[in-house]
Fold this sequence. Notes:
mainly alpha
Amino acid sequence: MTTPELQESTDFFEPALLIPVGGKVYRIKPLTAETVIIMQNARDAAKKASDEGKDPYEIEVEGPDEDAETTQRRVFGDAYDEMIADGVSAVGMFRMTQVIMIWTFSGFDAAKAFVTTGGKALTVPNREARRTATRTRTAAASTTRKPSSRTTTSTRKATAEAAAGGTTSSATGTPSKRTSKTSA
């Protein structure tokens, strides 16, 4: 079985995700900001429930109290009625929802990879793994520490007069400044 190719409309003002299902291509517009917030709340609540060993379908989600059809209409937009008329299965709509959410939160390439791999979960390195990878790549570049400040204390350089055996302090033996000019 070949997986139909997911496409993305590149229209700057009206981007869309083109999802082929059962020989037909459905055009999905980007989610509204309100729908994204509702979906984020649902995703976060499901993850929390899963982490706590609870049933994700038995959770309370912040947001409007609406039925599944209303939520699906929000996600699929104009394509919803078309998909119902075409008899798209519940499994097909669920998978399309996953693809739409990945497209919304992670971009087209991630959504395409999800479809191409047959719905396998894609792993994204966590923050610590990304930092470690960066440090490993750049560690050999420089091992010399740079000064933390440009205003460092350093020993004064000897003046030409002191180097030539000029005037020195009788108390410390260090070169002293000439306070008046004398003619030689």
